[in-house]
Every structure is written in C-alpha cells, then in structure tokens.
Amino acid sequence: MLHHKQFVRKTRKGAIQRVVREHYLRDDIPCGVLPCANSPATSCDKDSARLSPNNEPILVIDTNVALHQIDLLENTAISNVVVLSVVLDEVKSRNVAVHGRLRALVADENRRFFVFSNEHHKDTFIKGEPGESPNDRNDRAIRVAAQWYQQHLGGKVPVVLITDDRANLAKAVAGGMKAMRVREYVASLGSVELMDLVVSAGDGEEGEGGEGDKAAREEENRGLRTNVSRSKRKRIYTDHKPMSAITAGLQRGVYHQGKLRVSRYNCFEAFVGSESLGDEILVIGRCDMNRAVDGDVVAVELLPRDQWKEPTSGALREREDDHDDAAAEEQGEEDSVGLPPASADDAPSSLSSAAASLSLNKGDEGKGEGDGGGGGKGGGGGGGGGGDEGRKGPSELARPTGRVVGVIKRNWRTYAGSLAPMRTAPASAGALVRALFVAADRRVPRIRVETRQAAQLMGKRILVAIDSWQPDSAFPSGHYVKTLGDIGDRETESELLLMENDIDARPFSQQVLACLPPLPWSVSAADVTDPKSKREDLRHVRVFSVDPIGCRDIDDALHCVPLPNGNFDVGVHIADVTNFVLPGTPLDIEASQRGTSVYLVERRIDMLPKPLTEDICSLRGGVERLAFSCIWEMTPEAEIVAVRFTKSIIKSAAALSYVEAQARMDDERMHDDLTRDLRNLNRLAKVMRQRRIDRGALTLASPEVKFEIDTETHDPLDVGMYLVREANHMIEEFMLAANVSVAEKILQHFASCSLLRRHPTPSPNMFEPLLRTAEAVGISVDTSSSKNLADSLDQAVGPDPYFNKLIRILTTRCMTQAVYFPSGQLAPPEYHHYGLAAPIYTHFTSPIRRYADVVVHRLLAAAIGLTPLPDQTKDKNALTALTDNLNYRNRNAQMAGRASVELHTLIFFRTRPTDAEGRIVMVRSNGLIVFVPKYGIEGPVYLIPKEPPKGKAVAIAAASKLDGNVASSDWVVDEKTQTVESKDGKRRFKVLDTVTVHIEVIEPQPNRPKLSLTLVNQC
C-alpha cells in the first residue's frame, strides 16, 4: 500500500519548499510475540518472534518511559517490551546516548525487546490531524499500536501500555486498553530494588518544557514527602534562561558559551573556557554555578569588573561529609593523601600557582617511551608555598568572574560513590527514606536519592544517576542504579575507578573477535611474497626486544649491525598491527573508541583483543612476526646518514627485560654478538641523549612506584620506588628517534592531515611554584627557554643526592601535557614539542596499545606508496574528532592508572602503618604538604587541629604529633623564605626540608578509609 507524506521545509536561502515522499505501508509486519507466531491462524514470522514465551504481559512503552527509565529497562527483571518505531525515532532525535542503550537492549538475544515498525504497518500508521502537535500525534500513534496488539493477540497475551503522561494514560483507559504508570507497574512486581530504579514523573529538568506531562509533574511534586509544598519553598538558585534568550545573548556578546570545568582542588570553584572572551571565566560558589555540573556546556554572564575575584588559596582544608552545603562551601575541598599532581593540566592553566598545587589528583604515564615534560612523565604536586600575595596584589590576580545563566547541554552521567551516614535509622525495613549520595568524584555535588534499601546500601559502593535539579533544592535529585560491592573491597574499588574514568573494560564483542585471523597464526608464504606490502625479509638480522619484566604485549624491537664503512645499520621494528586491524572494521572501530590500553597495578585493559596483543602482533623471541621498520645508517657519533621505511618480516633473537639487558651490558665477561649489539646501541643512545639535552630537551623526574602483587589475592605485598636503568634510557632514545623520523616523513607527504603530537610551551605563571621554591632554597632557575631551564636544573645542587631529583619533580608538575593534533589545525611553529626540544613529533612505536600509532602507521604506509591515504585522515572534522577522543582517552587512562596506584597504596598501609622520610614541598599557615619519595605519595601534615564547620560542635583530634597545642595564630608563614615557624621559635619548617612522618589508614567516618600523614616528634 502506497501512501504519500507531505511536509514543507525552508531552504538555506530562506525559500519555502513543499516535499512529497512516498511512504509504503504493509500488512505482513510481524508482531514478535511467540504465542502468536506459533498459532496456525496467524501469518506472523516465527524466526523474529522473541516476546512472551510463557504468556507474560506485553509492555508497550512510550517515548518518555524510554528516555527517562532506561536504567530500569536495562534491569533483567524487565522483559517482553515492544519498542515502537515512532518511539525509537523520537528517542534518537532527543538523546543519542539513550538511543544507543535502547538499541543494545533490542540487539541482545538474551533480552526480550522487540522493535515493531508501527509507522509502516497499514493498521497502525496514522496521519496527523489538523491542529494536532507532533507530540500529540505520536502519543496517539502509540495508543493505536498498543490497541492493535491487544486486538491482534485476541486476549491470548495481556498487553499493557506503560506511560507516565496523565493525558495519554486517561485516553488509553477510555479506549478500553490496560495502561499503567511506571511506578504502579513496578510496584506490582514486588521488588524493592526495582522501585529504587524508578525515576519520578516530576523529575524533568527545570526549564526544558515538553518533558512528560506537566500535570503529572505537579501531581508527583505534591506527593513528595516534605512538610513544605514546592510552590512555597525558598528558591536557592535562579531560573535558567530559555534557549531563545541564551541564543540572543550569545549573539549580542552578553553571554559567553563554554564547558564548565570544576576544580579538582575545590569543588566550589569552576572555570569556563570562552572562545568569545578569549579567556577562562572563573565561577565561584554553588549559587553562581547555578545547578551546572562538571562537563556541562553553559552560558555565562560576566559580573561587573569590581566583583571579579581570584582563585582560592590559603590554609590546608578538609571537608566533612556530614555538615551542610553552606558550611562545606566555606570550608572548601579537602587536602588528601595520595599521588602528587602529574602536571599543570590537573588545574586550570591560569589558576594561581598556590591554588594549583593544593592537593592530589589522578594521572599517570602508564607505559611508554617517555614523551618529555608534560607528555606523560607523571610528577608530583606543586612546589612552593602557600599564597602568591607576597608577589602580587589581589587586583593583579583577579580574573574574569561570572555566573551561569543557563545550561545549553547537560553532561549528566551515572556516578559511582556511596550513601552518606544517616542521622536517624529508617523507621522500618523497606521504608522509603531520603539519603544523600556522595560521589567518588569530588567535583560532583551530593545527590539526593529516595530508597527503600537504605540499610542494605550503607557501606556499599553504588551507582546513582541524576534526574533533575530544581531551583529550590540544594542538591540534585537522582535514583539508585546498581550496587557495585563493599566499600574498600579491591575488586569493587577497581570497578569504580574504571567507571569514574570512563574506561571501557567490557569483553570484546563477537563482531570484533570475528575480525581476528584464526589461531594458531604464523607468517605464511603469502606474507613474504605479497606485492602490496612489499615486505623486506629481515629474518636473518639479529633483532631483539627490551621491555619491563613480564611484558607480553611486545610492540618494539631493535637491531644494530656494524657496517664496513664504520657506520652502523640501526633498526627500530614495530609490530605491524595495521596488517590485522583494517580500516572501518568492527575491530578498528572498537580500537578507535577505546583509544589506548589501560595499565592498572594488577591488570591491563587492552585496546585490542589478547590474541593480537600477546600473540599475533607481539614481537616475541624466537618466532617470526610482521613488522613496520624504520632503519637508519648512523655514524659512530649517532648522526643519521640515511633513513628508510619498510614493511618487514623479523624473527626476534631474544626478548630481554630491562634488568637482563643492563646485566649483559655491565658484565665485562660477556662478549657475545647480542651483548655487543646492546653496548653499541647504548653508546649511540648516550650521544643522542646528550645531543637532545644540548638542544634544550628536559631531563625531568617522576616519583614512580612499583608494587609486588600477590599472585593469588592480587593484594600488594610490597611497594617501592621504580628504578630507571641505562637500558631504559637506551630504548627510550631510539623510540624517540623513530617517532621523529616518521613524523618528518608523513608531514612531508601529508602536510594538512598528519596526526602529530605537540607539547605547548608553559606560560611564565606556570613556573611560579618552582621559582618560589628555588628562591627560598637559594638556587637560580631560568625558565626563559627549555635550554636555559635544562641548564639550570643541571646546576641545581643541594645538600643531599635527592635534592636535584626533587627539583626536577617540582619542574615536571609545572608542565602541561602533550596532546595529539591534526597538522592542518596549527601553523608549523606550533608543532613544537617543548619537553623534547623537537620541532615535530608523533607516536609510531606502540600500535598494540595506542590507536594514534595505528593511524600513523597508515599514514606512513601511504607516504611510502603501499596503501592509499586513509579515509579517517582525509576528513578534517573526522580527524579533529579522532584526536580529541585520543587525548580524552589517553588522559583518562593515566588517571585510572594513578587511581589504581592510590587504591593499592591504601590497601598496603591498612595493615602496615609505618614511619618514613618525607620532603616538605609546600608550607601553609596551619600545616605542611609533605612528599614521601619511597612510596610516591603526598599529603597534608597539620600543625594545628583542623577547624570544625561553622555552627557545628565536633570533637577535634590533634592532627599532628607535635608537642603542645598551639593555635593557628602561633604559627607565622614567611612567603619569601617559604618557612613556617612557631612564635616561640621552637619549631621551624622550610620548603624541601626533610621530616619524618607516620603513615597510616584512618576512618574519620564509617566506611571512609583514607591515608593520613602525621609528623613524628622532632625538634
């Protein structure tokens, strides 16, 4: 049956155009119900039928149920659901993420969800009526489809329309259908956990309009368990401007658009990067954030210039989870014990240096060849002292300050955390109570949830989703989603940190695994003779790899052969991953989305399936493998005479660890060919390294730690500093050289679409913590160029051997991180990599674990004429989106790795309280920030008792083991000398001084374990 759909649209030139489209209607579209398909009286297709095998009710859901109750729908207790095509299309237009989750439910063979094409069935398609809105037409289409199911099944299977729209519900009942609200239906199932998953009908975002039924929202609001009606409650926040007003304000320059980034150091302070203003806008306090959360795209109105403020700094602070929000805002966020900040990126670049180094954050280098400065060498958090007031007045530090007037795009997601302790126990088991959820991510405000499982959820890590945030509520409202496990349990906490850092740890799908070659795999004759790849047979060359102990994903190997002319033939051979990961395949798409492998303390989460990472692509010793080789002719002075690139076949002679390689080079009794190759490479590497340093490359440091893990329980047995050997530096130099050579080659051929990596030059204010510390300890540091900085670091000699390394650690945290970018996006001078002092750089050497390297391999193959230019690099927008995702995934992987180290450090010290030597990296008016090198942790040591929240009577325990109880006024901070001294002169502490601290795990509140540093008695 042919039907014509007509509509009008406006062209780009403003003309009105009438469009007529053919719309085919059929009568043979199956209903998907098994009892119907099995009946001889029906023509419904049996193969596609999956609903109601045991005559359970068929649920027909409307659009708002699909949009707002997706967490409920994903619970396995909900089944036999009909998703109408009109619902699926509307969900796709309104929320792509929910549409993806809904499609996943339909595609899951273990779930009974079925898409019925009601818009193409002759009995369920309807035309819009005159004066009928699109929403009303769609609601009517849903009722017509539900009624058709009821008539089609003839009473054999019950059909229920699920809707929270009161008008839709009333019309369905009047039409003789069975219809129920979501809460009513879930209550009939008798599950307390399912009831907690239900999002209230009134939980639509204020100001959005059209979300559900207004009358239903009002009715639901009246039913909330509160003594004050919503209409009479005091409004805490201002209403968000409507989108029309926001758009007009943006066009006039009255408002500024940008993404809200909440500080990791103070959850009541945020920054909005504005392109229109060309600067970051500071937003201080919950009221001015106006219900926006981290990651929201917001519209900001600037405050008058005389109201501009500076980012906060000052004394050490601690947040107590049980006091009210106002007190929390005055207190600020807590200073915690954990890994030091990895780089200046962990705070906004323009943040004052004092505030930029207040507390720990998460980020790590994972595994890599070293990217220079901020490119991945994780350092510690903020050197220098407590405020910047000694150098600048407040007027100089004040920055553009504003307030949020509207949210353009929400970034709400599922949050992991736990319920805050309740002041009173629930009246009875299963009673509905309101509780506050505290997210593990400090930037997230507490979320009010209603639950019937309060007793069971206490002491558990749970997931919660935000549903709404009304102007009269101090906190957003949300609902329980899932229980992860017990607080403190290693597996539970590991799952939490993966979720918080958006790490995809799911098993690879069958579609992805189907892209892999069958096992066992080996190099075939076709691989050798393939005319497309033009592989060079290098199996006769003595190739070897050097990696950390236990490494199984070996993606690089080397060779070094002396030439008759006195030069060396040196090769870096990289696993030819692109031979197996073909563009556009499910395997390629999955790898591009994951972006990178993630290295936790106890396990690795691969970007590619293990058959590839540990077998087919891994350059293991004694087996033939496919590679992509960068081969130089080098002089004994490590000058490159010639370079060539080729696909190759290699057979590694040995897979060495760094320890084994170092032992060979150091053992004067060993003179075999492999050892001679290692020594030749090491001599060349030393020359290359010194040449880089002479150009201005920075030799930085990071407080890396290594855990010894119990093979059965996976709990930490020991922890200590990671030892870097000459062998590490040797491999790093050749990986860096290969990356530079490949970058030059691909840019030569593809000037506008190469994938490169840059490390921006730090701005002068980012060096303020380092300069303040250097001045205090009497050394001179010149930051005018990377060369001058490198020379200054070499000359920074102190009273003990660790002094220089500590200065380098403090320098590392002044750097921004290196980032990927498309070459056509910036001018060539901006390609510069500051940390490496390299004019151009990319990543080529780790395609097993980094998708950026996969793209670069494809670019290099195209540059040497083996393959055409990959489509993903031809599209400028697609390449930009790809690099954005790679930077995001790389950052998250680092943060997850650091969070894993923090977790295992906490587990280690649970039963092993100890004393250790620390170094003061910052002084405050009431305490110190101390870095403990042996364990790579940093945190506050209080000199005075911590202040209680205003208006609260709390017991104060001394936070240090200093003799005597002294008030904060009894300590004086000298900003210039970076010292804090008691007024009686008996106690004096200076930045970089050595102190002894006691490390232990404490529980200031039930189920809230954390590391604590206290000062051991000393004069």
Q: Which structural category fits the helices and strands?
A: alpha+beta
Low-confidence blocks of residues = 203-228, 319-333, 347-370, 372-395, 948-967
What is the overall pLDDT average? 82
Number of strands: 37
Biggest β-sheet, characterized? 6 strands, mixed
Quickly count the helices: 29
Please, what is the oligomeric state?
A: single chain
Anisotropy-based shape:
globular
Whole-number radius of gyration? 32 Å
Report strand %: 15-25%
Distance between the termini: 94 Å
Query: What share of the residues lie within helices?
Result: 25-40%
What does this structure look like?
The chain is 29% helix and 23% strand. Strands 18, 19, 20, 21, 24 and 25 form a 6-stranded mixed beta sheet that branches. Strands 5-4-3-6-7 form a 5-stranded parallel beta sheet, with helices on both faces. A hairpin with a 4-residue loop joins strand 22 (598-599) and strand 23 (604-605). It contains 29 helices and 37 strands.
Topology of this structure?
Elements lengths: L1 E9 L5 E9 L9 H4 L20 E4 L1 H6 L1 H4 L7 E4 H10 L1 H12 L5 E4 L17 H20 L5 E4 L3 H9 L3 E3 L1 H8 L2 H6 L16 H9 L20 H10 L2 E8 L6 E6 L4 E6 L1 H4 L7 E6 L22 H7 L62 H4 L4 E8 L4 E6 L13 E7 L7 E5 L2 H4 L2 E9 L8 E10 L3 H11 L9 H4 L11 H5 L6 E2 L5 E5 L8 E7 L5 E8 L10 H9 L3 E2 L4 E2 L4 H7 L7 E11 L5 E18 H9 L6 H23 L9 E5 L6 E6 L4 H24 L5 E4 L9 H10 L8 H9 L7 H11 L6 E4 L28 H13 L7 H4 L1 H35 L3 E10 L3 E6 L4 E6 L28 E4 L4 E4 L5 E3 L3 E9 L7 E6 L4
Parallel strand pairs: 3-4, 3-6, 4-5, 6-7, 15-17, 18-25, 19-25
Antiparallel strand pairs: 1-2, 8-9, 8-11, 9-10, 11-12, 13-14, 13-16, 14-15, 16-17, 20-21, 21-24, 22-23, 24-25, 26-27, 28-29, 30-31, 30-36, 31-32, 33-34, 34-35, 36-37
